[in-house]
Amino acid sequence: xxxxxxRFPFDLSKSGVLASMKGVKPEPITGESVIIGRRHYPAKQxxxxxxxxxxxxxxxxxxxxxxTRLGFTCRALPAASPARVLTPLQEASAQLGTPAPM
Length: 102
Description:
By secondary structure, this protein is of the alpha+beta class.
């Protein structure tokens, strides 16, 4: 399948991506990821391995779009839950180690 990544056309196939990623150790995931086989790879790592381009030359979105079209499962990084905001009274109570009134 013809995919454009960083303004360059690539003829990619699912079997070709599987072969390229075979033996590649996944890096820690900090953003979008692609599931290839039983492993989760960062989208930028997959793009770098299959295209040979520098990771700064393409976006994770371009890789996710191409991998989705090839039939791979792609995941976004779950949004961080907002930190609970404490009132000044609750914060002071927490620092003292006593339960704060609600």
